[in-house]
Design goal:
Radius of gyration: 15 Å
Strand order of the largest sheet: 1-2-3-7-6-5-4
Order of helices and strands: HEEEEEEEH
Largest sheet: 7 strands, antiparallel
Oligomer: single chain
Distance between the termini: 44 Å
Shape: globular
Number of strands: 7
Length: 130
């Protein structure tokens, strides 16, 4: 298991929000777990089963709207189950090894990318109008 820790790290924010950092082929993937009802993006790609009833939805977010150096790609992931849509993840591919401060910046920026406020408390929905 020692080798896993050289390529995979976990970071926690506000005790309940996780960010995974994965190193592969000289790139770094940050996978941020988010949650928002609905998927307010036009999917760039979708993978469905059961006649389009259950789907994974992917949206390529324009990196020129991110404003963070070293970012090569941003992909927002959603799910469709019947008539229900949810936004569940934002994945960032970076050409640089992000330190804690950059990971924290990207964590909070992920919420803004999906159209929500930055979370301040895990018990309050940052995507509600409240």
């Amino acid at each position: 298991m020692e080798g896993v820790y050289k390529v995979l790290s976990e970071y926690w924010f506000l005790d309940y929000y996780r960010v995974l950092k994965i190193r592969s082929n000289g790139k770094y993937l940050l996978s941020i777990d988010v949650y928002r009802r609905g998927f307010p993006f036009e999917p760039s790609y979708r993978e469905c089963v059961m006649d389009d009833k259950y789907c994974l939805l992917y949206h390529e977010y324009p990196i020129d709207r991110v404003g963070i150096d070293g970012v090569e790609r941003v992909v927002i992931t959603g799910v469709k189950a019947g008539d229900r849509y949810e936004t569940v993840n934002v994945r960032w591919v970076l050409s640089i090894d992000p330190g804690y401060d950059l990971i924290e910046e990207i964590f909070y920026r992920s919420w803004e990318v999906i159209g929500c406020r930055r979370p301040v408390d895990p018990w309050r929905d940052p995507c509600s109008g409240e």
